[in-house]
């Protein structure tokens, strides 16, 4: 083959790889395949479209994105971008691109900047956007354990089939759908996205109050999607069923908007006289009857966390805090102050038939992560973590929740309260 012909062949192959995102990535493992689905419906005027585009540009230029990419085992992700409006109106504007270095990110940013708006009208078909995005995973040979569709938009589905139907089909195919609702035109859009758009294991929604706030929101959202271990403080700001690194969480009740959650002020640590394996059953029963005797969060002996009730529900726990009985416990500081109405209950299962058995190593490890998450999500001060026995006498044989509450206070840098030592029974 002549040198000139060889050069043209190499150039053609390089161009094909760039356009299709396949030739240069045969079966290449990545940590994440991510489709960015951008709303370009009629409500998105030129200014709003540019704010979205520049939000993505600024987010990917942020050094935290490269750090997030490099935190995964493959140290690489594959990303593509589409625009969407009505049913059948979608445009694949940036091809699948491997992001594994600063240079690769700069190339992807340039592609976003150069991508013109291709759609303007046609209604708002989130279902069409999901269907189109789901089809794109077949057009690349990058392979990832996580395949995510990231839908952003400023309105609810009003064209095509129901968004829930498209969502459910995508989830059944192993995809995760996350959402970034822009609530400037519809204050209730975040609630709609949680109910009808997001889905799959670890899915979440993070709202932007305006197009001007889009850039900051998409940066946080991308880091949560990309990073192997995103910061607890970032995870604590989202709704849905987010992955909390280091924890196995089963959500019987997904998280809501943090701003809509009850203003929880305390955490009460309980230990149930149930055998190992009982946390799931307890949490499931609690999910069916929010007000029954029990708690919001249950922790199994193996460290699995079960989120049983919505954050707005008030389970029946800690009633003894309304009983001033200094004969056994000096609860003067918490009497009628640390109650079920303002306290999250966390129940650790497995200390039966020996109630004096301490929490398992797996529970202790899980609690070190869960306690930080609860503090970050609700702004609960470290000295507001209480053992059941610090607010109410329970059992002379052991101090219920005391070791775990001490662990939380030590971790979150707060001293143990003077009332921690129960008075001897008389």
Structure notes:
With 426 residues, the protein is of the alpha/beta class. The chain folds into two domains: 221 residues, von Willebrand factor, type A domain (Rossmann fold, 3-Layer(aba) Sandwich), CATH 3.40.50.410; 170 residues, 3-Layer(aba) Sandwich (Lysozyme-like), CATH 3.40.80.10. It has 13 helices and 13 strands. The strands form three sheets. Strands 8-11-10-12-9-13 form a six-stranded mixed sheet, with helices on both faces. The longest helix has 18 residues. The chain is elongated. It starts with a helix and ends in a 15-residue tail after the last helix. The N terminus and C terminus are likely disordered.
Q: What's the structural blueprint in terms of helices and strands?
A:
Layout: H1 3-20, E1 33-39, H2 46-61, H3 63-70, E2 77-84, E3 90-99, H4 102-114, H5 126-135, E4 147-153, H6 163-172, E5 176-181, H7 189-196, E6 204-205, H8 214-226, H9 232-235, E7 239-240, E8 249-251, E9 266-271, H10 278-288, E10 297-299, E11 305-307, E12 343-348, H11 361-378, E13 385-387, H12 388-391, H13 402-411
Parallel strand pairs: 1-2, 1-4, 4-5, 8-11, 9-12, 9-13, 10-12
Antiparallel strand pairs: 2-3, 6-7, 10-11
Helix pairs in contact: 2-4, 2-8, 3-8, 5-6, 11-13
Helix content: 25-40%
Please write the string of helix (H) and strand (E) elements. Answer: HEHHEEHHEHEHEHHEEEHEEEHEHH
- Global outline: elongated
The major pleated sheet works out as: 6 strands, mixed
The number of helical elements comes to 13
Using only CA atoms, what is the Rg? 25 Å
Physical arrangement of strands within the biggest beta sheet: 8-11-10-12-9-13
What is the CATH fold-level name of the largest domain?
Rossmann fold
Give me the count of strands: 13
How much of the sequence lies in strands comes to 15-25%
């Amino acid at each position: 083959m002549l040198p000139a012909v060889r050069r043209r062949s190499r150039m053609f192959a390089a161009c094909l790889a760039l356009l299709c995102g396949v030739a240069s990535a045969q079966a290449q493992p990545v940590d994440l395949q991510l489709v960015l689905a951008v709303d370009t419906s009629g409500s998105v005027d030129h200014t709003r479209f540019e704010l979205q585009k520049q939000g993505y540009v600024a987010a990917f230029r942020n050094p935290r994105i490269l750090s997030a990419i490099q935190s995964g085992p493959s140290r690489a992700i594959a990303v593509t971008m589409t625009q969407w409006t009505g049913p059948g109106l979608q445009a694949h504007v940036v091809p699948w691109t491997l992001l594994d270095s600063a240079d690769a990110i700069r190339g992807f940013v340039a592609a976003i900047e150069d991508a013109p708006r291709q759609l303007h009208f046609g209604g708002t078909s989130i279902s069409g956007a999901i269907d189109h995005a789901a089809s794109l995973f077949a057009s690349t040979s990058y392979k990832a354990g996580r395949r995510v569709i990231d839908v952003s938009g400023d309105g609810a589905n009003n064209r095509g089939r129901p968004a829930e139907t498209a969502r459910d089909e995508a989830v059944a195919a192993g995809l995760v759908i996350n959402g970034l609702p822009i609530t400037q035109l519809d204050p209730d859009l975040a609630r709609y996205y949680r109910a009808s758009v997001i889905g799959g294991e670890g899915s979440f929604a993070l709202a932007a109050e305006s197009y001007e706030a889009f850039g900051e929101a998409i940066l946080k959202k991308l880091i949560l999607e990309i990073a192997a271990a995103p910061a607890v403080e970032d995870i604590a700001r989202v709704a849905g069923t987010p992955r909390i690194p280091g924890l196995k969480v089963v959500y019987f009740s997904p998280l809501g908007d943090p701003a809509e959650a009850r203003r929880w002020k305390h955490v009460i640590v309980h230990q149930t006289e149930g055998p190992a394996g009982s946390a799931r059953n307890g949490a499931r029963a609690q999910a069916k009857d929010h007000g029954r005797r029990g708690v919001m969060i249950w922790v199994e002996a193996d460290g699995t966390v079960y989120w049983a009730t919505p954050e707005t529900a008030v389970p029946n726990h800690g009633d003894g805090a309304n009983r001033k009985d200094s004969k056994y416990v000096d609860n003067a500081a918490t009497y009628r102050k640390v109650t079920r109405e303002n306290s999250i209950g966390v129940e650790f299962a497995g200390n039966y038939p020996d109630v004096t058995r301490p929490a398992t190593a797996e529970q202790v490890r899980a609690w070190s992560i869960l306690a930080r998450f609860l503090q970050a999500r609700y702004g609960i001060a470290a000295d507001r973590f209480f053992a059941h026995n610090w607010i109410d006498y329970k059992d002379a044989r052991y101090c219920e929740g005391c070791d775990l509450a001490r662990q939380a206070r030590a971790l979150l840098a707060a001293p143990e309260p003077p009332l921690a030592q129960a008075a001897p029974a008389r």
